[in-house]
Amino acid sequence: MKKLENKVAVITGGSGSIGKITAKIFLEEGAKVMLVDLSENSLKEAVQELNSENIKYCVADVSKAAEVEHYVAETIKLFGKIDVFFNNAGIEGVVKPIEHYPEDIFDIIMSVNVKGVWLGNKYVLPQMNDGGSIIMTSSVAGILGFAGLSAYVTSKHAVVGIMRTTALEAASRKIRVNTVHPSPVNNRMMRSIEENSAPGHAEEVKKQFETSIPLGRYAEPIEIAKLVLFLASDDSQFITGTTQIIDGGMSAA
């Protein structure tokens, strides 16, 4: 039997690299999937690429309560239930020392990465089936500090607090709630951070990051997706309230 047979999953940040590859393996494991993101064009491209009758999309700004309520309602309308929630949407901001970090960018990061995650749990949880699973994307930046990324690091630490609280509140319904903490991932976000860190010298920044990872390389999106699949499936039935680190040893160094 497939790991997510007859399950319905919601994935925010659904057109990004991790969201899209997670949707792919969820579909392969029998799930019906609702992709949520801000850009309709990106969502249409993702759905076309994934090419399944079991995937739909909903355009939403995760930082707006009414739009979160809307994607939850659309999922229930189209699929009838929610079993898995991959609360994944997030943005990186800019790379600047804290004394020069723009306050407006800080506010945007908090709105998406913290409020958006909190709102997702707030509105999905009442509609989720008992025994379901919520997986929230934090980062190795949710357990370590990184110079120049004060807003992002703050937001990803905050996700852990939301996770631990939700895990306790949802436990009576046997709903599991966990965070995943990737090291740098080979995707658009890291290309942005590399270039912002040293404009014109992104490749050198990448090499510096790689030397801080004992396994010597970035994670690939599929590796994160496989961990998310494990947490979404019944294979992880006794795992809740945990920080699942997938960083090639970076946080151990």
TrEMBL record:
<protein>
    <submittedName>
        <fullName>Oxidoreductase</fullName>
    </submittedName>
</protein>
<dbReference type="InterPro" id="IPR036291">
    <property type="entry name" value="NAD(P)-bd_dom_sf"/>
</dbReference>
<dbReference type="InterPro" id="IPR002347">
    <property type="entry name" value="SDR_fam"/>
</dbReference>
<comment type="similarity">
    <text>Belongs to the short-chain dehydrogenases/reductases (SDR) family.</text>
</comment>
<dbReference type="InterPro" id="IPR020904">
    <property type="entry name" value="Sc_DH/Rdtase_CS"/>
</dbReference>
<dbReference type="Pfam" id="PF13561">
    <property type="entry name" value="adh_short_C2"/>
</dbReference>
<dbReference type="GO" id="GO:0016491">
    <property type="term" value="F:oxidoreductase activity"/>
</dbReference>
<keyword id="KW-0560">Oxidoreductase</keyword>
